[in-house]
């Protein structure tokens, strides 16, 4: 057994054909992390890049519904599982392999094993970007990911209010602890614009994520409004970038994707496998 202060050596990269791995994380649930992950993946794909998305939210997988995927991946025995392609991106989710109404009642180590399987046993092939939709919080899925693949960076999603930002700090500190680079923070549900009169209402406050980014030295990647069309299209399985590509909300996601591309271009190529230190 390693000494308590001795770094554990990372395992070999399970997805060598993927150029950049971007984890989308949140400190708490209900902030729109999965919606952001899906639209970020599609926005990157619309630049001409080859993109995949992996739903690592084992307890609450929502990618199948958001991409309107009902079929299960079909693979040959002894071979890796092929992803399902939807809206131009490759997708894999634990939700493909179980009924939507079936709860996942697993202890932590099983979650880590499931995340590893989604990486190791899927034929991701050559990708420019793999977006990984993490469960909220700082648990086994996050730790497994940082041990198994070289993360290019982490995108944090939060709403503007103080209670969400407090959890953001915990998540940021966890990723720093495992030496995972943080690309920046997105403020989701940032404001609401009345469709009739154009008045902007800051339902969950406004600007908190930007202030947090400035205070902690993180990049602020952009804000996305609270709007029923984003939610309705996600629920219908046709993300807003597909359903309403010319909408101002789609433009927001494209701006965020372009900012992510710029930051990746400035970072060390390909990311790195972090050393995990047990304290």
Walkthrough of the structure:
With 279 residues, the protein is an alpha/beta fold. It has helices at 33-45, 63-66, 108-120, 140-148, 162-177, 208-216, 228-235, 240-243, 248-266; strands at residues 18-25, 51-55, 84-86, 89-93, 127-133, 153-158, 182-187, 192-193, 200-201, 220-223. The chain has a single domain (23-266), classed as P-loop containing nucleotide triphosphate hydrolases (Rossmann fold), CATH 3.40.50. The chain contains 9 helices and 10 strands. It has an 8-stranded mixed β-sheet with strand order 3-4-2-5-1-6-7-10, with helices on both faces. A two-stranded antiparallel ribbon has the order 8-9. α1 crosses α9 and α3 packs parallel to α4 (140-148).
The secondary-structure class comes to: alpha/beta
The radius of gyration computed from the alpha-carbon positions, rounded to a whole number of angstroms, is 18 Å
Strand order of the largest sheet: 3-4-2-5-1-6-7-10
Query: How many individual domains?
Result: 1
Distance between the termini: 13 Å
**Which residues sit in consecutive blocks of at least 5 with pLDDT less than 50?**
1-8, 273-279
- Global morphology: globular
Helical residues, percent? 25-40%
Strand percentage, roughly?
Answer: 15-25%
How do the strands and helices of this protein lay out in sequence?
Layout lengths: L17 E8 L7 H13 L5 E5 L7 H4 L17 E3 L2 E5 L14 H13 L6 E7 L6 H9 L4 E6 L3 H16 L4 E6 L4 E2 L6 E2 L6 H9 L3 E4 L4 H8 L4 H4 L4 H19 L13
Parallel strand pairs: 1-5, 1-6, 2-4, 2-5, 6-7, 7-10
Antiparallel strand pairs: 3-4, 8-9
Helix pairs in contact: 1-9, 3-4
């Amino acid at each position: 057994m390693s000494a308590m202060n001795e770094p554990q050596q990372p395992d070999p990269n399970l997805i060598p054909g993927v150029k950049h791995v971007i984890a989308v994380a949140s400190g708490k649930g209900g902030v729109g992390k999965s919606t952001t992950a899906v639209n970020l993946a599609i926005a990157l794909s619309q630049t001409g890049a080859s993109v995949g998305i992996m739903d690592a939210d084992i307890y609450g997988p929502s990618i199948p519904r958001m991409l309107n995927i009902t079929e299960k991946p079909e693979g040959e025995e002894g071979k890796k599982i092929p992803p399902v392609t939807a809206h131009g991106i490759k997708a894999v989710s634990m939700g493909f392999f179980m009924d939507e109404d079936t709860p996942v009642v697993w202890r932590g180590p099983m979650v880590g094993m499931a995340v590893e399987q989604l990486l190791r046993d899927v034929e991701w092939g050559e990708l420019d970007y793999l977006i990984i939709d993490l469960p909220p919080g700082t648990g086994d899925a996050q730790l497994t990911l940082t041990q198994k693949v070289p993360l290019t960076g982490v995108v944090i999603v939060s709403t503007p209010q103080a209670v969400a930002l407090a959890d953001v700090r915990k998540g940021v500190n966890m990723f720093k602890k495992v030496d995972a680079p943080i690309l920046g923070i997105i403020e989701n549900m940032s404001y609401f614009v009345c469709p009739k009169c154009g008045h902007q209402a800051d339902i969950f406050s406004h600007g908190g994520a930007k202030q947090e980014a400035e205070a902690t030295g993180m990049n602020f990647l952009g804000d996305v409004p609270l709007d029923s069309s984003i939610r309705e299209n996600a629920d219908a399985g046709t993300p807003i970038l597909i359903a309403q590509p010319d909408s101002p909300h789609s433009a927001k996601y494209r701006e965020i994707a372009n900012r992510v591309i710029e930051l990746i271009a400035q970072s060390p190529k390909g990311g790195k496998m972090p050393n995990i230190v047990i304290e």
